[in-house]
Amino acid sequence: MMKTEEYADAAKKQIDKLAADIEKFQANAEESFDHLRKEYEKRIKDISAKYEKEKGDLGKRREEIGKEIDWLRTASGKAVEELKTGTDAAIAEMKDAAARARRELRKES
């Protein structure tokens, strides 16, 4: 039979080992959380950059279409048909770009 002092020493060793294991686990968990946090922040930055670029591209294209619409208002004859075709194509292109941007943002999140 184990003496009380021997039992206390053995129990303390087990507790110390468990405490060391817990500290090691906690350090690993904190390292993992830091890594995940950095990755998450990087992804947000990347998505924000893509969003800003798409927003800028769409804004420029919107201005171009606005000019085409202004020209359409003052055009006549064959020029009207050409402007309509160009304007319709530009609007379709903007819709496609907006849809692509939405898909990318959903895919990234």
What is this structure's SSE topology?
Layout: H1 4-74, H2 78-108
Write out key terms for the chains shown:
mainly alpha; 2 helices; 0% strand
Characterize the structure shown.
It is a single chain. It is built from two helices and no strands. Helix 1 runs antiparallel to helix 2. The longest helix has 71 residues. The two termini are 62 Å apart. The model has no long low-confidence stretch (mean pLDDT 85).
The domain tally reads: 1
**How large, in whole angstroms, is the Cα Rg?**
32 Å
Average of pLDDT: 85
Poorly predicted spans = none
| Biggest β-sheet strands, sense, barrel | none
State the helical fraction: over 70%
The tally of helices reads 2
Q: How would you summarize this macromolecular structure in one to three sentences?
A:
The protein has helices spanning 4-74, 78-108.
